[in-house]
């Protein structure tokens, strides 16, 4: 008996292969896009975790000098006093066109690094003495080792899988040479077991600052918001994919009503049928989910390199450019496929289980759904209102996403109501009988198409919203770069002494030399970098202040006030007039807030004298040089030659800008890719809806054809209908997209990155998207239209003949 | 001569010829009943006369226009202007109201006469149903709308294919009476396909289709 039922149920799919394909594609797309994002996130997080583990980061308290690096003598003194500390020197270096992080540790005293122990346990362990004696050894991943192979001046490389990507691990002595920072130490690691009776650190090293292990900036926290953004996008794509599933399952169930009625009449219980259909849906969800996983895996593989580049550029976070398959990920993906499929079919299944044995077999008539439309309008309005209410009353990124989610879902739900309204207005205004029919017919088709149109609305709104955000951000960013990067040249000296020499040499040749000096302090919101500036129009005229009090610069330069970046302002809720505590002795009034995009940490600016007071002896290794632009290139070369500086040590403004913009553009490659994919999915949803509606189409068009319209006319009208509905949806999507853009710029960005952006409008982009939408709608309707065109008259005539 | 069917042949792809050699004429104002067994080709012949489908041989002339040289567009124009049709079922456009359905053909043919339409609605008992949609009408009501729509154009020729085939006896008699009186009144010619000898007997002439011929 079971077998017979299975056969009967499956026969439906044999007869409706396209429907089956659509259903599987819908599940696969939803799962695929979602899983791709999850894979990217998981891979990135796994990379951070691996790097932390391999380098034992965040395990020990550390000592730092707020004014810069620690001299080797201090290290020696501390150890003599009995303190078990170990030195680390780290920094970026550019080798063969690629920026690589160098981490040099004191191999003798440093605690066992997993990266080292694993390498020592490998088949070809490096000789420990080789590591310590000149020229030393560099530990790098096979991929990085390959890249470094051609660099003959480097010490020999030991290949290891146990080091993070893009990092060279080596002895501190080797690192000094590589980084060109002799006898310097970035931080001291305080080892866990300290002997009793050592003098207190506050006595022997009052200038060094102890940073708790837990307070150290970790990559995971920094990048959390970036990953949350990606997740939100994945969820949106997932939802759009589910619209396809919902539409197809609904139609398949409607078409199977007759068969199910027959089965019940033959004595199969409803319970049993529901169980069998549930099993069938589970099977379909698993097949579609598996296809989705394959899709997601390749998609993630294609997108990950860009994401990795972004994370490295924006946060210095180490991420492998390669995706690896993890069983949890596959299981979660299949779980999403199952959950999504049942979410999308629950309603249809429920209705089926409630179907009285004697109802008609026909596809539900369309007009009965107007009450449903009113209901979803009410729910939609409630969701939109709720979304705004949450957005205005609750703080935090999750609240921001809840608001966006509420508004988007709500808007999707009210869409059919507005479309019906618009269509009936058009119908009333229509002159000719054909026009009147077209509008009426669109209204009649709406219930079958509304899910696809909702998907289109969401995809378009996401496109407009995210597009507006990215373009607004880019515009702001470019303008901001122009303000911030006013110096024609940026020079980094090897040390304080060379810095002085360079300044002396340059003095008579250039318009101004602007020393850039900074120290790292701690603030309750995290690390705080304090910069000192000298009085120059470069700052007074160009610095991008977004909030300021009167004569802000005058007060800063006369040591009375401080400027802070937007991230710090928003995180600590500090604004002009408030006080900022820099350390125990120094508290200054905030005179202004400046925008500081792309920087995850807090920053503040005081006058150079003030910086000397706060952190005496901070060294000046960086300078901005003002010189006429035509001389910049020549001067850069002269500096390099005279002071034996590397290419990276003397950079021109244009190069910095180009690099910043490249990082910026990378950041949004993923979002725009997801955007385009979502739009594609929505277009596909329209196509599948039109195809599934096809069965109901003949009785609609046959009478009109019989009364004197040609099939070619009808085919054109099919196209027109789809295009008009898409156009109407697009018109409604515009305001929604702008609301979304506003939410992203003014709420989500502030919560996620700490900056608020001005919103700009890009009508040309909208026009482009509009045309794209119409094209997609026309393409989606092309197949049904072609069918109408080719329809044999006999098929149309069958509508009128009695089927006895 | 209004309708001249001359030695027409028709077969469907992959099937035996349905019409082998059919000739039939119909004059202005004349009524003709076409009878025959199920599957004898009555509907096929009516559809050919209505310029809905093409035929394989012979010629059909409708109000002076030969049908075989016409393309899709020409046939559509002819349907719009020269004939009215009533089928057994699904005559009405589901997305339009009864009122819109009633005037649809007349407006398409640019021959709308609101006074006449109102009168038709009144006489067919549809005046209270004008804002309803077809799916909310009974079978008899639907067929009356179809007849109203057909007559609103004041056609020269009305082609009706078992218009009462789906109705019970009372409804069927009522619909038929209305149709015949309207036809008589407007002077239209009628080609009516029917199974019923009683109905056939009420028309001017009768033709019987069998084996692909008129007998
Ligand atoms: N589209 C078609 N394709 C193939 N054969 C067809 C098609 N339409 C009709 N036929 C065949 O042509 C023959 C005549 O059909 P038609 O519908 O004209 O008969 P009818 O006399 O109207 O029958 P009824 O009284 O049942 O309505 C039948 O054998 C039918 O099977
Ligand atoms: Mg017939």
TrEMBL record, chain A:
<keyword id="KW-1003">Cell membrane</keyword>
<feature type="domain" description="ABC3 transporter permease C-terminal">
    <location>
        <begin position="232"/>
        <end position="357"/>
    </location>
</feature>
<dbReference type="InterPro" id="IPR038766">
    <property type="entry name" value="Membrane_comp_ABC_pdt"/>
</dbReference>
<feature type="transmembrane region" description="Helical">
    <location>
        <begin position="723"/>
        <end position="748"/>
    </location>
</feature>
<feature type="transmembrane region" description="Helical">
    <location>
        <begin position="673"/>
        <end position="694"/>
    </location>
</feature>
<feature type="transmembrane region" description="Helical">
    <location>
        <begin position="375"/>
        <end position="394"/>
    </location>
</feature>
<dbReference type="GO" id="GO:0005886">
    <property type="term" value="C:plasma membrane"/>
</dbReference>
<keyword id="KW-0812">Transmembrane</keyword>
<feature type="domain" description="ABC3 transporter permease C-terminal">
    <location>
        <begin position="675"/>
        <end position="793"/>
    </location>
</feature>
<feature type="transmembrane region" description="Helical">
    <location>
        <begin position="230"/>
        <end position="253"/>
    </location>
</feature>
<dbReference type="InterPro" id="IPR003838">
    <property type="entry name" value="ABC3_permease_C"/>
</dbReference>
<feature type="transmembrane region" description="Helical">
    <location>
        <begin position="400"/>
        <end position="426"/>
    </location>
</feature>
<dbReference type="Pfam" id="PF02687">
    <property type="entry name" value="FtsX"/>
</dbReference>
<keyword id="KW-0472">Membrane</keyword>
<keyword id="KW-1133">Transmembrane helix</keyword>
<feature type="transmembrane region" description="Helical">
    <location>
        <begin position="446"/>
        <end position="466"/>
    </location>
</feature>
<feature type="transmembrane region" description="Helical">
    <location>
        <begin position="273"/>
        <end position="304"/>
    </location>
</feature>
<feature type="transmembrane region" description="Helical">
    <location>
        <begin position="768"/>
        <end position="789"/>
    </location>
</feature>
<protein>
    <submittedName>
        <fullName>ABC transporter permease</fullName>
    </submittedName>
</protein>
<feature type="transmembrane region" description="Helical">
    <location>
        <begin position="329"/>
        <end position="350"/>
    </location>
</feature>
UniProtKB/TrEMBL annotation, chain B:
<dbReference type="GO" id="GO:0005524">
    <property type="term" value="F:ATP binding"/>
</dbReference>
<dbReference type="InterPro" id="IPR017871">
    <property type="entry name" value="ABC_transporter-like_CS"/>
</dbReference>
<keyword id="KW-0067">ATP-binding</keyword>
<dbReference type="Pfam" id="PF00005">
    <property type="entry name" value="ABC_tran"/>
</dbReference>
<dbReference type="InterPro" id="IPR027417">
    <property type="entry name" value="P-loop_NTPase"/>
</dbReference>
<dbReference type="GO" id="GO:0022857">
    <property type="term" value="F:transmembrane transporter activity"/>
</dbReference>
<dbReference type="GO" id="GO:0016887">
    <property type="term" value="F:ATP hydrolysis activity"/>
</dbReference>
<keyword id="KW-0813">Transport</keyword>
<protein>
    <submittedName>
        <fullName>ABC transporter ATP-binding protein</fullName>
    </submittedName>
</protein>
<feature type="domain" description="ABC transporter">
    <location>
        <begin position="3"/>
        <end position="215"/>
    </location>
</feature>
<dbReference type="InterPro" id="IPR003439">
    <property type="entry name" value="ABC_transporter-like_ATP-bd"/>
</dbReference>
<keyword id="KW-0547">Nucleotide-binding</keyword>
<dbReference type="InterPro" id="IPR017911">
    <property type="entry name" value="MacB-like_ATP-bd"/>
</dbReference>
<dbReference type="InterPro" id="IPR003593">
    <property type="entry name" value="AAA+_ATPase"/>
</dbReference>
<dbReference type="InterPro" id="IPR015854">
    <property type="entry name" value="ABC_transpr_LolD-like"/>
</dbReference>
<dbReference type="GO" id="GO:0005886">
    <property type="term" value="C:plasma membrane"/>
</dbReference>
